[in-house]
Write a structure and sequence with these properties.
42% helix, alpha/beta, 20 strands, homodimer, Rossmann fold, 467 residues, elongated, six-stranded parallel β-sheet, 17% strand
């Protein structure tokens, strides 16, 4: 049995038919791009209706003057007309039996004055009709399984990720685009995506109440600028984090940024970091930058959680480990004390120039085989919860067999209930190996500080899982 | 007239001939990779002598049993044999008249005990002979003009940047590799590169005294783990920053990291951030991460300096500007108060949905032409020192003409003595446009916080230029 909110929100991801109100025949127009991106939904059996008073047909689809002229049932509408026309269109949608609306257009609350009133009026009508609205002033919804895609970013300019277990909810469409393209490049699969802009109706709390029961979603990342109804949000978050991890980045906390956020999505970001304690109390993992939000979500999706804070490191180039050790102490993790047995294993089986301590420095002459010996020993050490492996893949003694080694080590880590994270940066050669590691489910980071922050999320979630 | 130190250090970048002591015929070996990377130097008219007691020829070059067997003069030696053999090899080099030695091998001070003694003994002999040594435990020297390249990273695995105006000095070879590959991908040219590892002899101070007079070098970035002779360094830095900007990242400041740095390059990182004041007093711009070091150096190389702290921003997707506004307040920059004239210009010439304030939000319907109008107005505003332009290139109404717009705006900024920085992130489409912007000399950043930190460096250097 599913809840009412579940069915309402699920309507955005599983409609049978979608009307695009304001569909345009002119390439470069937002109403053209949205329609074009929905062609795949159409090809997969969904029905798409362009609504445009001046056209018979757009992009091979029969167009209608108004939504009321569509002969079949319409489940969802995507609105891309100017704000002043929206309240009346909502009336038409209601008459047509539409249950879900995504308003892409801006020109509402964020402009203030009469536009604020238009937003209030639209929301009021939607509530009256029992219609749920995402937006306005957003890029809307993406579902890689059902191919619902309300974006105005053409596919040749913006990668879409494959189906997977991560849901992103963003107040800023820009940040949503970036997160989705990063996920695509890492082959990190997505379950649901919502850009909700001004959140006139559907807010983070509604989406969390849906996603906590949504079976494909295992972890959620949110970028928000303003809380709106804080109590509702924290209650939903507390409920959500009983089951699944939630990472939140909050923008617009400085005084100047409060003003910028206000004119962006019409929300007050809130002064200073006063909500930080409330976030933690609700079981939320707090990210400090967009990269950190992404890094943490990726780690949680791929590696689950860490049983404890004790970290062991190994590399063939120690520089990044020096920085990682700094970061470990900042982030509240610990450098593991390796057992004598582990040290003995390392000394016996590795080159005499290896620095056997934690971190383990294999030095520039290290081969994939030496990495294997070292990672094996570190994973088997009872004092170790997480192993961070840094690479200089560029070094002559290395080669691509390291990918197989790491995949095997990742299997071993999973069996032992331990975490394995990789770090490497550079040009195309290294980035390709990173991609192979990601493909094998090993989260890979270019910068040691980013790796450590992601590890912190695994530790924090592990603490919550324990309780 | 050049100084003695200038000539000594210049020898590393302009030798007529190089011997590779420990050259190997086996692919994958460090001594093989180093020799192979020097083939280009050989093809450009330099002479390269592989030294290997067991081979007649390696990679098409005649090999010699010892350096003393080479019939011609040898200016520089690159040593890749185990540490125990090094003191004697230095004797041979002295006998042969070698003036510069790069020791790639590890196995010195960083291992402690007798290895520490070997390092001291080697340094002592070099001093006695008047030979300058870079290393040990490093990847050595790279000069894109003369093709001196002592790396053991094959070219197909590691990009080399073109000739340019940035010098990087790094204690960690790994970080050096990353910086050079990032520079290559951004088409940011490099003048000189030195990875100095344990800095048995040549240290940062020596290199700075050289680079302050080296005509191709306009800005220097350093990654260091330990100061060594702090007084010497600060004196050199103070001298250097009278002429050129210097950005420094220091690793290993946490207590645990001190230990890691000690076993990495045998240096004490120093407790806490006690040196921070001294760094600032010496006119050094301090970076907090490797990315920041790179970002700042890139901004300084491409945009010079900022006359003041006053920032104006514009975007077609406000999310990153919200974060940038937060960062501006953190980094000690200021949001510019736009003049009424500027606001008037923006209101008259842009869509009525534009949010005319600072930041300027062009909203998702913005075209390259609207960007042009906005950037023009912001650059012309007397209250503005720097303009940050953020993009969602993925949006349907945008297109590649934005590259021409930005190149023109960059020319205008230069004429007006103002700074122009760009921000955009995403997948291949966006990254390609970013690359085009870089090619035009516009520093481009994926993350607003990184852009703002780079801008801070331009402001700090501008303050110094004023004095």
């Amino acid at each position: 049995m599913t809840s009412e909110i579940y069915e309402q929100i699920d309507g955005f991801f599983n409609p049978s038919s979608i009307a695009v109100i304001g569909a345009s025949a002119t390439p470069g127009k937002i109403g053209h791009a949205v329609l074009k991106n929905l062609l795949e939904f159409h090809e997969c059996g969904g029905r798409v209706y362009p609504i445009n008073p001046a056209r018979e047909e757009i992009l091979g689809l029969k167009a209608y003057k108004t939504i009321l002229d569509v002969p079949e049932k319409v489940d969802m509408a995507v609105i891309v007309v100017r704000s002043e026309a929206v309240p009346e269109i909502v009336d038409q949608c209601a008459k047509k039996g539409v249950k879900n609306i995504v308003i892409i257009s801006g020109g509402f609350k964020e402009l203030g004055g009469k536009f604020r009133d238009i937003e209030a009026e639209t929301a009021e009508r939607a509530r009256r009709y029992g219609i749920r609205i995402i937006g306005p002033n957003c890029i809307g919804v993406y579902d890689p399984r059902t191919k619902v895609d309300t974006f105005f970013q053409p596919k040749e300019r913006m990668l879409r990720p494959s189906p997977g277990s991560v849901a992103f909810l963003v107040q800023s469409g820009t940040y949503g685009i970036i997160l989705l393209e990063w996920a695509s490049m890492d082959e990190l699969g997505v379950s649901k995506f919502v850009s909700y802009g001004n959140k006139m109706d559907v807010d983070e709390a509604d989406l969390l109440m849906y996603l906590k029961d949504e079976p494909n979603t295992k972890v959620v990342g949110i970028y928000m600028e303003g809380l709106g109804n804080g109590r509702k949000f924290f209650e939903a978050a507390m409920e959500f984090t009983k089951r699944k991890p939630l990472v939140v980045l909050r923008g617009g906390w400085s005084e100047a940024a409060v003003k910028a956020a206000l004119s962006h999505t019409g929300f007050l970001g809130g002064k200073g970091r006063i909500y930080e304690a409330a976030f933690k109390q609700a079981g939320i993992i707090v990210a400090r930058t967009l990269e950190e939000l992404y890094d943490m979500v990726k780690a949680l999706a791929r590696q689950g959680y860490a049983k404890g804070p004790r970290v062991a490191m190994v590399s063939n180039g120690a520089g990044p480990m020096v920085q990682a050790v700094d970061a470990v102490s900042v982030e509240g993790l610990e450098l593991a004390q390796l057992t004598d047995e582990t040290k003995e294993k390392l000394r016996e089986n590795l080159s005499p120039f290896t620095i056997v301590d934690n971190p383990v420095d294999l030095t520039g002459s290290a081969t994939p085989r030496e990495y294997e010996i070292a990672i094996n020993a570190l994973l088997e050490d009872p004092n170790v919860d997480m192993v961070f492996v840094f690479f200089v893949h560029q070094n002559a003694p290395m080669n691509e067999t390291i990918i197989d080694v790491m995949n095997e080590m990742n299997q071993k880590a999973k069996k032992l209930g331990k975490v394995l994270l990789a770090g490497a940066a550079g040009g195309p050669y290294t980035l390709n190996i990173n991609k192979e590691m990601e493909r094998g489910g090993i989260p890979t980071y270019q910068i040691p500080e980013r790796l450590v922050a992601a590890a912190k999320a695994l530790f924090l979630w592990g603490q919550k899982v324990k309780r």
